[in-house]
Give the backbone structure.
Amino acid sequence: MDRKAGSSGIFPTCLAWKALEVAFFCTLVASSVYGHWTVYLKVGDHHPSERATTSRATYTWMMPALTVAICTHNPRKDYLERTLSSLAAQDLDRQLWELLIIDNASNNEVCSSVDLSWHPSARLIREERLGLTPARLRAIEECQGALILFVDDDNVLQNDYLKVALDLADRYPVLGVFGSGRIEPEYEETPDPQLVEFLHMLALRTVQNPHWSNDPMDGIVPWGAGMVVQRAVAERYHAVIMADPLKQRLDRTGNTLNSCGDDEFSWVATEMGLGKGIFPELKVLHLINKSRSQRDYLLRLTEGHAFSRTFLRHLHGLKVSRPEAPPSLAITLWALLRLRISEGSYEAQRLVLAVRQSATARDFGSARRKGIERFFNTIHG
């Protein structure tokens, strides 16, 4: 006999549903900086007063500990393939890291032609805003790792680079950004011996011992070739750059040779109360094509460095000064004739030093002055 609503009984169908009713909810628990996540499946009665119980079925997956990001514009295929081969040879389990290639508005087909099938978590991403800074911003937006490792498209990383990077991040959590202390060249063409003292501008360095500090002006700055950034620092960097159009002008855009975008990561880290460092156990081979070891390219690079370094100081409220005019005999004699002895003596010393310099050194000094003048013309018109 049918029971009516309001009676002491319960409809049989309702009783059946009550017996089978299960509420599921998931709790995500982060277990470490390496991004291990666990989902606990809990089962409980529908009534809110009932205590939920934890199911024995526990499902675990891993977020990547590290994102490797290659930002590239019109890469040279053989160089990019060597970069990828060095990553394929890393001794770190590939389940612990993901690979992103940020194709920055390239007009060749190299990025789409390389084989990424060897990596289970590789992605090719197109970024149409031209420039290294927009490419890095896109990498930060796309990454899933707790750390981001930026690699250039002409870098060959030593086989243990990723594993050493994770170990250093674990040992020195106070470092918001760190990088290679050994970036050594492989030249396609041997440089002119007269240019040797200027080749360091090709992001080359060798240190024997680790160095770290929280002073962004002390020269201990990780460079983009193999630079490791904590995710929190990367996200803060993203916010800072997006909020300041002037800072978006740092670093390469197409064929321009501006720089110092790497330095901004160190500025952000130190402003967050963290440090930055370089380590010789992080080793990179920098592949340098013949055009980059030529005099004209290095002079352009010197001008770009001088502009960017001065620009960076300005952006952080530091004093910048116009460069001195080249010394000349006329200026020296004019000061002495007017009995300005100290000024004349100073100009004479500058003149002697200039005469002793090689023509190459004088040309690079001129390029530096041009870069600083470009800054003043850019800012002040």
Summary: The chain has a mean pLDDT of 84. The CA atoms of residues 74 and 106 lie 5 Å apart.
